[in-house]
Write a structure and sequence with these properties.
Blueprint: E1 5-6, E2 12-14, H1 16-27, H2 33-36, H3 38-41, H4 55-70, H5 73-88, H6 110-126, H7 131-148, H8 155-159, H9 164-175, H10 178-190, H11 198-201, H12 214-220, H13 223-231, H14 238-250, E3 271-273, H15 274-291, H16 294-310, E4 322-324, H17 357-361, H18 365-370, E5 374-377, E6 380-383, E7 389-393, E8 396-402, E9 409-416, E10 420-424, E11 431-435, E12 445-448, E13 453-461, E14 465-469, E15 473-478, E16 481-486, E17 489-494, E18 496-498, E19 501-503, E20 509-514, E21 520-526, E22 530-531, E23 546-554, E24 581-587, E25 594-595
Parallel strand pairs: 6-10
Antiparallel strand pairs: 1-5, 2-7, 3-4, 5-6, 7-8, 8-9, 9-13, 10-12, 11-13, 14-15, 15-16, 16-24, 16-25, 17-20, 18-19, 21-23, 22-23, 23-24
Helix pairs in contact: 1-4, 4-5, 4-6, 6-7, 6-9, 7-10, 9-10, 9-13, 12-15, 13-15, 15-16
């Protein structure tokens, strides 16, 4: 495989709506966890008494690139305090995680793999000269301990062994020492063979297990690609084969697989964990970089423009643990939750509903997505995800101005003092594509010579369409945006203290209570998109930048048996009980309460 290389925060910056989204994240929960959440503020990673395993590394994985993308000195300094403490705490033999020496064998090595990956992210952003040596000693120590049997992969480490390959690749590119390849082989040998687990994915159960855990699976998709770019082994596209199984038995309209927490089937009232959203995005970013196959970039867009914003409040101070396609209320269940393996509060918006892993981890989504806008290999640059960005690569300067995916116009302004080739990935759904007013022939590949200054304007159309879903339902998709019937709501605020953790506005918990109808079926055609300027909140739940109009009729949908805040998995009756009416459809990411999978009843008479 001829892999693409990622740019760093020194070379690639977000602009336009994407920069505003990063600024919202910095002003919200991710940007303040080190002051409001004890598991980060008082973590054992910096000498405190709170959690000393995955939460600080998870948080740094998003907070560090966020700080450097925004060039925020205060955030950079705060990240540096954590990195300094972690590097200072490294033992003479290379061990770096915060546990006693006698506890190492019982300390899940997932944290070793995670912190090694985070340190590569930190180096790419900061160029901290200490990090390569610290990583060398860290991985050499892990290799020796695994080889001797003093530690072994188990639990999370066993199911996430491939995360260690990111740091192994980083070091091998610098020193080329063979023990790193032996470490990669050790990790794989002690890790899980996901290809042997697919039978479990076809019949989800109400049972928690590592083998069907949605975050493990989302991470896993990039495993073979990472291995092959490291070892040179033939690439078989195992990710695609596994993706097809997951999509067939657990797929959602926005490209996720259900998992609350474990694979949950095709029901639109089952949820998907937010950690899985950002890890699946990260897997697709690596899959595109390693393979150059457009399908992974397009699938990445689907997640980023729908699933990621859907799970966060507009101000990003609150998030859900799990999101649902058909989500008519986010109220704490008074009895048995509808979810297979999650608790009663998993779908509310808050500080740490259900578990705090997503609280720490969700911050990687937008920054790493921003760093996937342009990639490079040799003298070729690829515009992989067409979001507003600015690239400075030596003498190459590219500014991409666009409001995509809310509009379909891309303007590239290119200046260069050296020859290079720009490749633009055109979406598969683009209609009547033009470049500077003319239809292109073949691949969008543009050659530039030293001294060139040119502008490329791409325009294309997109037609809304119904996409077939299981159970006789349909979803509306227009390009990379999925649309839903939004449900008006009011918030119920909960401020309280539990286990020493304060929840105080704006970082408290919120229930969303429905205040409009939701029992609809589609009964007519869809309008063309109606667009307006993207506001200060790109995925605003109050003023979405693009809407569709759809004809609908009320039906006797009904509630899921035993619940009064969950719609039935499948409508009780699809015979219309009202005359047609017109509703506005919002982008899925803007509609916090929504109906996404609906029947089409055109021609069915009351």
């Amino acid at each position: 495989m001829q892999a693409w290389d990622f740019y760093t925060t020194n070379e690639l910056k977000a602009r336009g709506w994407l920069k505003r989204q990063l600024e919202i994240q910095a002003s919200g929960l991710c940007g303040h966890l080190d002051s409001v959440w004890p598991d980060v503020r008082d973590s054992a990673w910096i000498g405190g008494s709170r959690e000393g395993w995955e939460r600080v590394p998870y948080w740094l994985d998003g907070f560090i690139p966020l700080a450097y993308l925004l060039e925020d000195r205060d955030m950079i300094a705060r990240a540096g305090r954590y990195v300094d403490a972690i590097l200072r705490a490294q033992r003479p033999d290379g061990w770096i995680c915060p546990c006693k020496d006698e506890e190492r064998s019982g300390y899940d090595p997932w944290a070793i793999l995670l912190i090694s990956k985070v340190l590569t992210v930190c180096y790419d952003c900061s160029k901290d000269v200490r990090i390569p040596e610290v990583l060398y000693r860290l991985l050499r120590n892990a290799y020796e301990l695994l080889q001797s049997g003093e530690i072994r992969l188990f639990n999370w480490g066993k199911f996430r062994y491939f995360e260690g390959l990111i740091a192994v690749r980083f070091l091998y590119a610098r020193c080329g020492e063979d023990w790193l390849l032996r470490l990669a082989a050790l990790l794989k040998a002690q890790g899980t063979d996901y290809g042997s687990l697919t039978g479990l994915w076809k019949t989800p159960l109400n049972r928690w297990r590592f083998e069907t855990h949605i975050v493990n699976i989302a991470m896993m998709l990039k495993a073979e690609a990472l291995e092959c770019t490291l070892t040179g082994a033939p690439y078989t596209d195992q990710a695609e084969a596994l993706h097809k199984i997951l999509e067939r038995y657990n797929g959602t309209p926005v490209g996720l697989f259900t998992g609350d927490e474990c694979l949950s089937g095709l029901s639109p009232i089952q949820g998907t964990e937010l950690c899985a959203v950002v890890e699946q995005m990260y897997a697709y970013e690596w899959l595109y970089a390693c393979t150059g196959e457009d399908k992974w970039a397009e699938r990445l867009e689907l997640l980023a423009f729908n699933a990621l914003p859907a799970a966060c409040s507009d101000d990003m101070w609150a998030h859900q643990y799990v999101q649902m396609s058909n989500q008519i209320a986010c109220e704490i269940f008074p009895g048995k939750p509808v979810f297979r393996t999650n608790g009663a509060d998993a779908h509310i918006f808050g500080l740490e509903p259900n578990f705090g892993c997503c609280t720490a981890n969700f911050g990687q989504g937008w920054p790493k997505f921003a760093l996937s806008a342009f990639l490079h290999r040799g003298d070729t640059v690829v515009s992989a995800v067409p979001v507003p960005s600015e690239l400075t690569d030596g003498g190459i300067h590219i500014v991409l101005e666009t409001d995509y995916p809310f509009e379909n116009r891309l303007v590239y302004t290119v200046e260069t003092d050296r020859p290079f080739t720009l490749v633009v990935r055109a979406p598969s759904f683009a209609e009547n594509l033009t470049v500077n007013g003319e239809a292109p022939s073949g691949e969008l590949r543009f050659s530039f010579r030293a001294g060139d200054r040119r502008t490329l304007e791409l325009r294309f159309g997109v037609t809304p369409r119904f996409a077939s879903r299981p159970h006789g339902l349909s979803a509306v998709r227009c390009g990379s945006l999925v649309f839903s019937v939004p449900i008006a709501y009011e918030k119920r605020v909960h401020e309280y203290v539990r286990d020493g953790v304060e929840r105080k506005a704006p970082y408290c918990d919120y229930e969303y209570l429905p205040r409009s109808d939701w029992n609809y079926a589609y009964c007519g055609s869809l309008s063309a998109p109606a667009r307006k300027a993207v506001g200060k909140v790109p995925f605003s739940s109050e003023a979405p930048p693009v809407v569709l109009r759809a004809s609908v009729r009320k039906i006797g949908w009904g509630y899921e048996d035993g619940y009064e805040t969950v719609c039935a998995k499948v409508p009780h009756c699809v015979v219309p009980v009202s005359e047609p009416e017109e509703v506005l459809l919002y982008p899925y990411g803007c509609a916090k309460l929504r109906m996404t999978e609906l029947p089409v009843v055109d021609g069915i008479k009351p």
